[in-house]
Amino acid sequence: MQAVLRKRDDRVAGWLFLVPVIVGFLIFYAYPTVRGVWYSFTDYSLLNDPAYVGADNYRELVGDAQFWNALKVTAYYVVVNIGSQTLIALGLAALMHRLTRSVVLRAALLVPWLVPNVTIGLLWAWLLDPDLGFVNHLLGVVGIDTTLSFNSPTWAMPLVALVNSWAYTGYTALLLYAGMLQIPQGLYESAAIDGAGEVRMFRSITLPLLRPIIALVLVVSLIGSFQIFDTVAVVYGGKAPIPEARVIYYYIFQQAFTYFHMGYAAAVAMVLVLVLGVLTALQMRMLRASRSDLG
Amino acid sequence: MLKRASWLALVAALVVTVFPFYWMIRTALTPAADLFRDSTALWPSNPTLINFTRVLGLVSSEEARAAGGSGAEIDFLLYTANSLVYSGLIAIVQTLCCAMAGYAFARLRFPGRDLVFGVIVAALMVPPIFTLLPNFVLVKQLDLVNTFPGLVLPSLLMTPFAVFFLRQFFLSIPRDVEEAATLEGIGKWGMFWRIVLPMSRGPLITIGLTTIVWSWKDYLWPLLVGKAEETRVLTVGLGVFLQQSPNRAPDWTGLMAGSVLSVVPVLLLLVFLGRRLVQSLNFSGMK
Asked: What is the reported pTM?
């Protein structure tokens, strides 16, 4: 009898506890998701009512060179960004792990992560100013005869990627470092007794035991990386970027709010959902694999 | 040898991380007229605070123009206040609502619980831009563009991640205290507010802090919904400032002064709550 009563209690309390979250979820997640899918099958300019056009937006998308370019540019960005950021972060984390527990150092490395991407973009637009930028001045001092600029088709995307790596490497390093702290210290001590050097220990102890964390960090930052927008929106002075830097988020933004092609923008966003869906599925598989790996 | 090289690498990383911020401050302290002459100087020849006072709207527009401003109305004092309200409000309300839900998902038993949780977690896979387009339409239809409700409502009550994170947390804490409290005859509601919440202060502050940082950094949504002066947050203010600045010779000293203002509050957060923030990384590392 008492058990039944308690169950009834939970039922009422349970749903009451969920009210704010369910309201927020239905209005600002579920409803817009359904609406977004619907828009992708319509012609909608924000001024008129959405008019159903079947798969027209998707057909247009297949032949849209700018769309494919945006995908390509974004992929390029993701590879440079994630590659540099993860490698340097791994190195930094390993150095910290073996050398120091300094909280001040960790806090300092975290600072760029705390700062809005808009600020980061502005700061680097200034540092990389073709005439007065300090980084270009340094390059001149060292004797490199190139001017780095976001307006250079060759340098635009690598620069944006490296700027964001600069902003997120410390954060990533701290995530990996937190993972390294879980590795039993004894392993390193006995390896040292056996005469293993630091490099050997990194390869044979740190890397294999950290693999699940690396996989997790990698995929989470990968998905975040696809959503690059702020930096691109800022380093071109708030105007449209050059085509070599027109990433997928910016393309969607432009279609929706510059050209008012809401339906088309929704279709492009659907493609992004699919791409990220595949990546998430990959993430799940990797996580499962890594879990069984750890035992 | 290896040890020395390792330290050197760490110090180098530190310099690369910190120096750009030093340069930001240095530029903000340089008079606009000296920008060219001092472009490589490590310290301005005539340091000044005029760039700060003018972006904060504390001097007349003639004085601001004389100091290198474009003459357009710019009020970073207001934008900073807006940013604080925006991120503070979202962090507090969202954390509490998501804590309630997380607790229900972790501890209470009722039919449909796991289904609802599954649906919410599935929304983690939808990139923000996908819901952003229809949400903009919705806010526009509700006539809430350039109002604070329009700005905060979409993230005020929940994000799927916070619900997920807090459920995981409540699953991980021991049940003993709650069981003891049940014997005392406390209801679920009282239990949550009087026992569970105070007990979980640490992790709640942690996720609240993370939410503050992310909202502080928000750009695209406030750009679309709160571009008008009264609702402009710092990031949008910086973007507008940049757009108003002449293309050929941007007002770098003013822009860097505005940038410093966007760094100071989060830096204070780091100074006073650094340990908590660093801990938050340990959590997300294990999620």
From this structure: 0.91
